[in-house]
Amino acid sequence: MTIKPDLSTPIPADLGAVHFVGIGGSGMSGIARLVLGAGHRVTGSDVRDSDNIAALRDLGATVAIGHAAENLPADVDTVVVTGALWQDNPEYQLALERGIPVLHRSQALASVIAGQRLVSVAGAHGKTTSTGMIITGLLALGEDPSFVNGGVIEELGVSSASGSGELFVVEADESDGSFLLYDTSVALITNVDPDHLDHYGSLEAFEQAFVDFADRAREFVVISSDDAGAQRVAGRLSHERVITFGEATDATVRVHSIETEGPVAFAVSYEGAEHRARLRVPGHHNAINAAGAFAVLVGLGFDPAASLEGIARFAGTGRRFELHGTVEGVSVFDDYAHHPTEVAAALSAARTVVGDGRIIAVHQPHLYSRTRLFAKEFAEVLEQYADETVVLDVYGAREDPEPGVTGALVSERFEQPEHVAFIADWQEAADHTARIARPGDFVITLGCGDVYRIVPQILGSLERERRA
């Protein structure tokens, strides 16, 4: 079983020397970068090397590959972990034996951002993009915010940075309730689509967490006017200042006239004026994300036209419709989408730019519980938005396997089984994908596990197939 960090654990006044177990992930590496920037000595470990780890080493961190008790320095003061860590991790167990404070990554982040004017972005999906849009907009407006995002911001090449300004922008994780740790000034809720019910136990508890998150915001709340869950949460808020955004006619920030062919274009109506923009990223959902980011910036007092112009400079984040290569006209992308709503958004965005080509989805289900609960919904959106689908086996992450829960739960629910294949072996899946692909097609890997690692295999299979 994975660990269940105690979020009530007191956070030390001084973190001292910090050891990160699982330092290579986008979230953990971003926090480690900030801790380094604050002058702390940082060590860490992860199961494999990565660009994130190389960047941390360049900044002075000492990182071991593989988890072992000897990785934990004798003089470490604080250990930082994620909820994806297993109970028997030797570094975690040694920290407990030695009585070293063990903090969830959100607690470490809360320590770093204490006392700053915090913009927290939460929601079942859209967080990383919305956070990136706010950061990009602030930079274009001449601000210098600190930030931690869940993905690398394309034009900046980093997922976190320490700025000189008063604003600090974070992607706040609702999956385990840790977003309630932050002293938030401005709360943005992109949506409240049911997810993480394995942690919360019920939809009521999930939505109540968002109510608590929003009502604790010291300045104002920005929340979707369109999402059903967000509407229910908004109806329960007691906050004095709530800004809504979306396509609803009564939204404070109303987005309309959305054009999705190629990079998305749209108009925003706010306080009697209309502003237009064309983004550098595709997809109807990104027009909505931009409206949320715009609502945050104008709520902070920035000029509306300049705010939207700044947001339009956003060029995407890593693992969000990210192109990895093209072989003989077949383009291979990777996307973090791991919930049915996210999969629908990613594939519909791809549809606007694929032209006459087809979309081949390579879907890695994430979590046994989510696969069991949403197998039918995944099948429906994959069948609706992709022309062909390859389903891999489940990436369990923090969960133990469940009997009978495999990727086949998704593929078996397709109404047209000739357009889907469940293939657990990755090389066989890559070879199958290469055989069915033809020039002009988009291959898109989908999932928040390690599915991105199959991309080189797909590119290799495409090259071999074309030489045959």
From TrEMBL:
SUPFAM superfamilies reported for this sequence: MurCD N-terminal domain, MurD-like peptide ligases, catalytic domain, MurD-like peptide ligases, peptide-binding domain
Span of domain Mur ligase central: 121-296
Reaction equation(s) it catalyzes: UDP-N-acetyl-alpha-D-muramate + L-alanine + ATP = UDP-N-acetyl-alpha-D-muramoyl-L-alanine + ADP + phosphate + H(+)
GO molecular function, one term: UDP-N-acetylmuramate-L-alanine ligase activity
Cross-referenced Pfam families: Mur_ligase (PF01225), Mur_ligase_C (PF02875), Mur_ligase_M (PF08245)
Pathway membership, UniProt: Cell wall biogenesis; peptidoglycan biosynthesis
Enzyme Commission number, as recorded: 6.3.2.8
InterPro entries assigned to the protein according to its UniProt record, in alphabetical order: Mur-like_cat_sf, Mur_ligase_C, Mur_ligase_C_dom_sf, Mur_ligase_cen, Mur_ligase_N, MurCDEF_pg_biosynth, UDP-N-AcMur_Ala_ligase_MurC
Presence of keyword Ubl conjugation: no
Residue stretches making up the Mur ligase N-terminal catalytic domain: 18-116
Class in the EC hierarchy, top level: ligase
UniProt binding sites for ATP: 123-129
Cell inner membrane found in the keyword field: no
This protein's UniProt keywords: ATP-binding, Cell cycle, Cell division, Cell shape, Cell wall biogenesis/degradation, Cytoplasm, Ligase, Nucleotide-binding, Peptidoglycan synthesis
Function as written in the Swiss-Prot or TrEMBL entry: Cell wall formation.
Family according to the record: Belongs to the MurCDEF family.
Protein name: UDP-N-acetylmuramate--L-alanine ligase
Species of the source: Agromyces indicus
